[in-house]
């Protein structure tokens, strides 16, 4: 089956190459984006890898925004422990790429992960000559794992997780999937799982049990972002215009906007000076989300069109955050928050971001990607789970009206976010063993 996969991926690349080229041209992407995906890394990245000499680099792959944020404390730890080794970061998505370039100044270079085609993978590995590859969460690319294994490059999965839904899909196709996964999961050197449940699921799909360890969730080790120019300007506008309450709806995904706007409608009926910050998860939803706000009769203003030399529109009902990397800091300004990707079947997003600022996260029923974390927050009465837009609205109103409840839950959320730190150090210690005994000390 592994041989069939190689044939299918080679055929897919031939078919998809024109698509990627055309898509990149339409979006105005740099030509290097296309080259990266085919393993042709930029000359400056290749030069930086070559300059390391015997101190071969470390390669971290973080798919998108969530993985980039989780990788930040690990990158910092690697740079401190192995200062002579350059650390490169790859992403899959455009939003992940932007955030990595902004939030990871310690990286020796940032590029797009190659397509899982043998030739692309060999080019990229040959250009970097990494001593180690760290795959964030569970990005299982068979050709990449096989070629890295053949080249003697150890691969470690950090912050690894397998959701219940993924395991259920595996069980449905076990007859065909098990032999395939048992073969390709022999190649990685380590699986560092977020939780005991994730470790058990990794073993169930074929990862060797002796290579699985529980090191915790790296997202707990992330640091709150520093206030930026927009946050400082926005905070001053809220105060000057006496806007209250301020609600932050972050990482909202497609088909979830109507639910959030229904909740917002309930809040605004009680407080006319309320203000909603609506942050779509992906850039391709900016236009659609804006259209929904306008169709609902609200005065919505876009972050991208704001002039910091002028005041915020005093009649604005909604601020559409059509930018990348500014959401997390804005939770500090909110009186109540909602973390999206959870009212529809999208698996949820990071509820730690409001918790950093003692804001209790409110989230929906779809939290498969953060199941263990959501369970901790609910168990500690540090977060609230809702099932619909109207229910979200009622919870927002409850938190706004009951300051004591809001503050008590917010403080519990903050303490919980701090109490579970340590995964970065545990992950670093295990990864170091793959670089040799001298560096494991």
| Low-confidence regions | none
Distance between the termini: 41 Å
Overall morphology: globular
CATH class of the largest domain equals Alpha Beta
Rg, Å, rounded: 23 Å
Q: Helicity, in percent?
A: 40-55%
| Beta content | 5-15%
Number of strands: 14
Report mean pLDDT, rounded to a whole number: 93
Summarize the SSE layout with pairings:
Blueprint: H1 2-27, H2 31-37, H3 43-51, E1 58-61, H4 65-81, E2 87-91, H5 94-103, E3 109-112, H6 118-128, E4 132-136, H7 142-150, E5 155-160, H8 164-172, H9 174-184, E6 190-193, H10 196-205, E7 212-214, H11 229-240, E8 246-252, H12 257-270, E9 275-280, H13 286-295, E10 300-302, E11 318-320, H14 327-330, E12 336-339, H15 352-356, E13 361-363, H16 371-379, E14 384-385, H17 389-401, H18 403-419, H19 423-432, H20 437-440
Parallel strand pairs: 1-2, 1-4, 2-3, 4-5, 5-6, 6-7, 8-9, 8-12, 9-11, 10-11, 12-13, 13-14
Helix pairs in contact: 4-5, 4-19, 6-7, 8-9, 12-17
């Amino acid at each position: 089956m592994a041989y069939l996969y190689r044939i299918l991926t080679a055929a897919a690349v031939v078919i998809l190459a024109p698509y990627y080229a055309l898509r990149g041209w339409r979006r105005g992407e740099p030509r290097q984006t296309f080259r990266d995906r085919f393993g042709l890394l930029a000359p400056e990245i290749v030069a930086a890898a070559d300059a390391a000499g015997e101190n071969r680099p470390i390669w971290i792959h973080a798919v998108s925004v969530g993985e980039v944020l989780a990788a930040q404390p690990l990158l910092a730890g690697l740079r401190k422990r192995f200062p002579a080794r350059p650390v490169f970061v790859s992403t899959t998505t455009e939003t992940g790429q932007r955030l990595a370039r902004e939030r990871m100044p310690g990286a020796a270079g940032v590029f797009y992960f190659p397509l899982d085609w043998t030739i692309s993978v060999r080019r990229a590995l040959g250009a970097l000559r990494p001593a180690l590859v760290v795959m964030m969460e569970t990005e299982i690319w068979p050709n990449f794992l096989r070629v890295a294994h053949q080249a003697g490059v150890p691969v470690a999965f950090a912050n690894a997780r397998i959701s219940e839904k993924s395991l259920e899909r595996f069980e449905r196709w076990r007859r065909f999937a098990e032999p395939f996964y048992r073969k390709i999961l022999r190649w990685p050197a380590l699986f560092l799982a977020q939780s005991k449940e994730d470790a058990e699921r990794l073993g169930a799909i074929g990862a060797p049990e002796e290579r699985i360890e529980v090191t915790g969730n790296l997202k707990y080790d992330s640091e709150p972002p520093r206030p930026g120019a927009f946050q400082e300007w926005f905070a001053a506008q809220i105060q000057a215009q006496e806007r209250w309450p301020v609600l932050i709806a972050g990482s909202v995904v497609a088909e979830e906007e109507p639910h959030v706007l229904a909740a917002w409608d309930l809040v605004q009926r009680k407080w006319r000076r309320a203000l909603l910050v609506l942050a779509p998860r992906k850039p391709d939803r900016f236009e659609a989300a804006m259209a929904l706000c306008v169709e609902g009769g609200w005065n919505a203003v876009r972050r991208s069109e704001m002039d910091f030399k002028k005041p915020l529109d005093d009649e604005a009902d909604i601020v559409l955050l059509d930018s990348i990397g500014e959401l997390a800091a804005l939770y500090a300004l909110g009186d109540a928050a909602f973390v999206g990707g959870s009212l529809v079947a999208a698996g949820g997003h990071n509820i730690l971001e409001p918790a950093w600022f003692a804001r209790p996260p409110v989230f929906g029923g779809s939290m498969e990607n953060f199941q263990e974390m959501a369970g901790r927050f609910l168990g500690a009465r540090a977060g609230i789970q809702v099932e619909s837009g109207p229910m979200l609205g009622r919870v927002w109103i409850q938190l706004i009206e009951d300051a004591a409840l809001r503050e008590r839950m917010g403080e519990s959320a903050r303490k919980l976010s701090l109490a579970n730190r340590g995964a970065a150090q545990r992950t670093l210690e295990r990864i170091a063993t793959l670089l040799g005994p001298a560096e494991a000390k």
